Amino acid sequence: MVTSYAMSKETKLLNLICVIGSLGFLVAIVIVAVTTNELLSTDNLFIMTVCLVLALAFAVNPLFYLKSENKLPIPFLKKPVDAGEPWGSSKLPGQKTPPLLDAKGRAVPPDVRAMVASFAKQEPKDV
User: Fold this and answer.
1) Is 36 helix (H, G, I), strand (E, B) or coil?
2) Tens of pLDDT along 20-46?
3) Which of 1-5, 26-30, 37-41, 70-74 has the lowest mean pLDDT?
4) Measuring CA to CA, how many Å separate 10 from each of 7, 24, 46, 58, 111?
5) How many alpha carbons lie under 13 Å from residue 29 in its C-beta half-sphere?
6) 26 and 55 in contact (C-beta within 8 Å)?
7) Considering the chain, what percentage of its residues have pLDDT values greater than 70?
8) pTM of whole model > 0.85?
9) How far is CA 22 from CA 11, 16, 55, in A?
10) HSE-CB of 125 using CA atoms within 13 angstroms
11) Residue 35 burial (C-beta neighbours within 10 Å; 0-12, 13-18, 19+)
């Protein structure tokens, strides 16, 4: 049985190897750009493109790992709801109850919320 500590060490080692490989391909691009006379020749552009694609291929796994660990902030992306709370029950500051959402996930207007609250207060009458 493999412990989570061993998995953590393996993951860190594999991510380190991927980062080193990605940086190696980026260094290869710089070396090609510095050492050649004609930068925009077909051969140089092909070598740079292949190195960029391989650098991206090696960089994807560490980036996905950082994203899954919530260590990589992605701008313009809404924060996910905590796993402990049900979907759509994120609370606003100072709000005691979760917001009431419609079918599309939008917050309902205050008047509709008041009507729903009044319906919830009424108890069914026994006949």
Assistant:
1) coil
2) 999 999 999 999 999 998 888 999 999
3) 1-5
4) 5, 21, 34, 16, 55
5) 17
6) yes
7) 72
8) no
9) 16, 10, 4
10) 1
11) exposed
